[in-house]
Design brief:
The complex is a heterodimer of chains A (about 150) and B (about 80). Chain A is mainly beta. Helices cover about 15% and strands about 35% of the residues of chain A. Chain A contains two helices and ten strands. Chain A has a seven-stranded mixed barrel. A two-stranded antiparallel sheet of chain A has the order 1-2. The radius of gyration of chain A is 16 Å and the shape is globular. With about 80 residues, chain B is of the alpha+beta class. In chain B, strands 1-2-3 form a three-stranded antiparallel sheet, with no helix packed on it. In chain B, a hairpin with a 3-residue loop joins β1 and β2. The chains are: A mainly beta (about 150), B alpha+beta (about 80). Chains A and B meet through β6, α1, β7, β8 and α2 of A and α1 and α2 of B.
Amino acid sequence: MKIKTKPYGEIEVSEKQKIHFREGLFGFEGIKDYFLLDSREGPFYWMQAADCPELAFVLVNPRIFKGDYELKLRDDDYKAIDAQDRSDVIDFAIVTVPEDHQKISANLMGPIIINRKNRVARQAISENDEYTVKHYIMEEMKVRKEDLVETA
Amino acid sequence: MLVLTRKPNESIMIGEDVEVSVVEVRGDQVKLGITAPKNIKVHRKEIFLAIQNENIDASRSVIDRIGEIGSIFKKKK
């Protein structure tokens, strides 16, 4: 089927790319269905609202820039997407891209989890108190590099 | 706003399913216990607002340059 997207205009998508948020995202509670699109560049993905071409979020796997990232959630979060097994769940962080690209950040406080068996998704709240809504990706990568040098 | 006075170990009901009880009062801190059905999300207001605001910022991401972002990222790596 064809949908209108914010990043690429009208494109062909498959029903398999569709994910459903039973409760929507915080602040976007009314919008439940999105399509996951592979970004054509880099380690980023797009999450495009199915019925709202103007609304799309950039997602990233936090482990790409934060090697010690740990997804720590309540059991209820897994139950809310009917996940029997945690290995069925994939997770992302929502990315904020400001004018100054060096300040690109990821939200580790409100991770997106998706049960790949039924494609039900949820924005959870991290149980790790150290995670905030704004982790500057470039900064985190510098830290990571220093860590690597030390261990080497 | 409805204001009720409660002592430790007393509680209030919100509807039939939600119970908020005062567990402990110490100085300027109040420890609350909340019993609610699973479909009702319970969290601290400041966390809810922080994530909500960040989602709004994220939805306004400067997106026509995602390609550039990908390439900056690759260079750094």
